[in-house]
Amino acid sequence: MATATPPSPVSVAKPVDTRGLANQVVGETKVCAVTQSELIYRGFEIADLAENATFEGVAHLVIVGHKPTAAELAAFDAEIKGMRAVEKTVIDQLAAVVKAAPHAHPMSLLRTGVSILGHHDKECESNAPDAELRKSKRLLAKIPTLIGAIQRTIEGKPVLEPDNSLGHAANLMWLMTGRKPSELEARIMDVSLILYAEHDFNASTFTCRCIASTEADMHSAVCGGIGALKGPLHGGANEMAMEMLKDVDRDCAGGKMTPEAWMQRAFAEKRKLMGFGHRVYKNGDHRAGILRRWGLKLAEKMGPDAKKWFDLGDKVQAIMLKDKNIHPNVDFPCGMTYFIMGIPVPQYTPIFVAARITGWCAHIMEQHQNNRIIRPLAEYQGPMNLKW
Hints:
Layout: E1 32-34, E2 39-41, E3 44-45, H1 46-52, H2 55-64, H3 70-81, H4 88-100, H5 106-120, H6 129-154, H7 168-177, H8 183-196, H9 203-213, H10 218-229, H11 237-252, H12 259-268, H13 286-302, H14 304-324, H15 331-340, H16 348-369
Antiparallel strand pairs: 1-2, 2-3
Helix pairs in contact: 1-8, 2-16, 4-5, 4-6, 5-6, 5-10, 6-7, 6-16, 7-8, 8-13, 8-16, 9-10, 9-16, 10-16, 11-15, 13-14, 13-15, 14-15
């Protein structure tokens, strides 16, 4: 009697992890594309932009929607410079908050500053395309002024006026530090702003779009974006990455410990090591290498005290890749680069805002121009039909 052939096992598809909306497309955009090998701003790849563009040119590309001609860029630059000043009443109101809450994080203070700007903007409540474009430019111009005012007030120093002889990146550094940056430092800050300007539907941008989808105003949406960016799993990672390196340096000083031993202890303690990994990039964040090269160039010029941070960072990065197969993201070299330029660590994420405001505004305008309220469904996991 023939033996029956056993049935073939039924293949079961591996369930897709959709927590945090992972692996799900939730909308369309013409602003940015993120792939495993490229980051595209309105058709232009990030390595090309970092090498050949200025932040002002990229801001025009992202906000206005196309690569500017030389004449358009000159006009845009002049227009933005003319919008940098912030009314004294706004600075005074913000300074009062800083002094009343001395332990407040600069991101929370910046969120408050943008909210105050909204109260003083006569077009705040208008979502008309021309009004939103003007508001985008004003926010781009004024946010560095707010950042500088916050930092100077925290330090008990006079708030500085914007310097219109300086480009956007150099002016930002001047307002924060009271020091005119070198040409190399200004270029490095410019490149970092380009790298941080846009990244499709990340948490803060999606927050902006959710708020905008209710037909709320641009300032409200940007305040929400700042709140989302503040978190250490998003924009705050560059601050935490530098704090981690400072911990490694302290614990390994004088040969007390090796970076390898420090990392193994961190792995055993399941410490979250910031500046590594990315939800989208599985083979490495191509922005990280660009910023590391620029930061290392400055560190080598500054000498051993600066370069030691990049040497230490390279050791930590190599251990992370060897033991965990996790690559650094752009926040890792960002922390080291900003640190050797003398920028206070708590201002790293506000600088992120000074760049990402371009992407946020572009997405807010795009959402308003083809809007449907964002309202996903949830899968309920709780009990049913309880009696009160």
